[in-house]
């Protein structure tokens, strides 16, 4: 006589102000599974409500919650601290499997789907990776804001007829004077006479003044965030920054976005997550490739920018030039190199060390500079698929 298998789990549906929790049991009898929902209860989403929820979940040590906006982060953190094993599911995946949300039954449907194994959880970083991801994403948001402000400055100057480049060294000095309403010197007027526009009106002067002040503030904020990122750099990031084309901040971003590298079975899976694996279509015995699989947009941007630098550096310049010689466009060759870099990063994070050629000096967070011995990658690079 076979013994019944019984397991317990919970599911939580999250909104901005409310938590709906369902707990239940999975019973497998004669190889037939059945899920019984034991109880469903609502809690306010605040510290008191979370404490009540934890008491409600006593005896149910694992479960699932939906990654609703930013609301799930705090609850996930609190439950994890209390020792619960929590799986987070992507709402898009949930909708694909279960259909559209139905508020009253959503926690119960989520519970049944989790216990019967029909939905997959999402990776949620913890510890140093979580903090580094928060910092690098915050920096990216600030950099995007800087780009917006610079575009507004260019627009304001263009309306007044100015054709200067306001963000190189000389342009920045001129921009400061215009923002302050200062008169340009005769030398400046003579040197830039073909690029100067009319006198700014009061509205344009105020706009430019405020935009320049905002730009300085954002630039200082980026510097402050970068200082904190560097102060928290772990050893794997140092190893990644040895790869030609990958700077320290980019290495930190890549490390934070990949997270636990063991969740990828091989370098191809890591490359696909970074957004540099070809989308394959099969029809009968034929196979075609069209575009790239959409991956993590931050990794995709980071690797592409790194590849733009690495394509001129050893040992990657030969790989890049071979592709160009074969008729590949600059973009195609750069994307292929970005995919190669993603594969290399996977192996560095997996092995804990970069074994390739290093042609730069590295600044270690605690202040010292070190010379890194050169190693020849040899055929190892060519063995990685582009």
Automatic annotation (TrEMBL):
<dbReference type="InterPro" id="IPR047650">
    <property type="entry name" value="Transpos_IS110"/>
</dbReference>
<dbReference type="InterPro" id="IPR003346">
    <property type="entry name" value="Transposase_20"/>
</dbReference>
<feature type="domain" description="Transposase IS110-like N-terminal">
    <location>
        <begin position="38"/>
        <end position="158"/>
    </location>
</feature>
<dbReference type="InterPro" id="IPR002525">
    <property type="entry name" value="Transp_IS110-like_N"/>
</dbReference>
<dbReference type="GO" id="GO:0006313">
    <property type="term" value="P:DNA transposition"/>
</dbReference>
<dbReference type="GO" id="GO:0003677">
    <property type="term" value="F:DNA binding"/>
</dbReference>
<dbReference type="GO" id="GO:0004803">
    <property type="term" value="F:transposase activity"/>
</dbReference>
<dbReference type="Pfam" id="PF02371">
    <property type="entry name" value="Transposase_20"/>
</dbReference>
<feature type="coiled-coil region">
    <location>
        <begin position="132"/>
        <end position="228"/>
    </location>
</feature>
<keyword id="KW-0175">Coiled coil</keyword>
<dbReference type="Pfam" id="PF01548">
    <property type="entry name" value="DEDD_Tnp_IS110"/>
</dbReference>
<feature type="domain" description="Transposase IS116/IS110/IS902 C-terminal">
    <location>
        <begin position="240"/>
        <end position="320"/>
    </location>
</feature>
<protein>
    <submittedName>
        <fullName>Transposase for insertion sequence element</fullName>
    </submittedName>
</protein>
């Amino acid at each position: 006589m076979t013994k019944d298998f019984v397991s317990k789990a919970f599911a939580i549906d999250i909104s901005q102000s409310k938590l709906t929790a369902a707990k239940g049991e999975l019973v497998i009898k004669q190889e037939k599974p059945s899920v019984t929902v034991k109880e469903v209860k609502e809690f306010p989403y605040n510290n008191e409500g979370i404490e009540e929820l934890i008491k409600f979940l006593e005896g149910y040590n694992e479960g699932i919650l939906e990654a609703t906006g930013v609301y799930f982060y705090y609850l996930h953190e609190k439950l994890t601290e209390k020792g619960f094993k929590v799986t987070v599911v992507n709402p898009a995946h949930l909708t694909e499997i279960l259909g559209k949300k139905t508020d009253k039954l959503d926690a119960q449907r989520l519970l049944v789907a989790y216990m019967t194994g029909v939905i997959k959880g999402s990776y949620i970083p913890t510890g140093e990776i979580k903090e580094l991801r928060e910092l690098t994403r915050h920096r990216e948001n600030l950099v995007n804001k800087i780009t917006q402000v610079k575009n507004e400055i260019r627009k304001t100057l263009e309306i007044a007829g100015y054709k200067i480049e306001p963000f190189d060294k000389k342009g920045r000095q001129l921009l400061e004077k215009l923002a302050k309403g200062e008169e340009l010197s005769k030398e400046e007027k003579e040197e830039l006479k073909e690029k100067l526009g009319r006198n700014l009106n009061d509205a344009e002067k105020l706009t430019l003044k405020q935009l320049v002040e905002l730009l300085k503030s954002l630039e200082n904020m980026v510097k402050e965030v970068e200082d904190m990122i560097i102060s928290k750099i772990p050893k794997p990031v140092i190893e990644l920054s040895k790869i030609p084309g990958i700077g320290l901040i980019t290495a930190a971003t890549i490390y934070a976005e990949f997270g636990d590298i063991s969740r990828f079975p091989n370098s191809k899976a890591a490359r696909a997550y970074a957004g540099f694996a070809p989308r394959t279509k099969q029809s009968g015995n034929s196979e075609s490739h069209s575009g790239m699989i959409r991956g993590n947009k931050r990794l995709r941007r980071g690797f592409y920018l790194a590849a733009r630098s690495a394509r001129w550096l050893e040992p990657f310049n030969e790989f890049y030039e071979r592709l160009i010689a074969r008729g590949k466009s600059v973009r195609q060759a750069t994307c292929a190199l970005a995919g190669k870099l993603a594969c290399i990063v996977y192996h560095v994070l997996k092995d804990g060390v970069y074994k390739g050629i290093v042609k730069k000096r590295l600044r270690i967070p605690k202040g010292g500079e070190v010379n890194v011995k050169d190693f020849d990658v040899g055929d190892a690079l060519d063995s990685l698929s582009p």
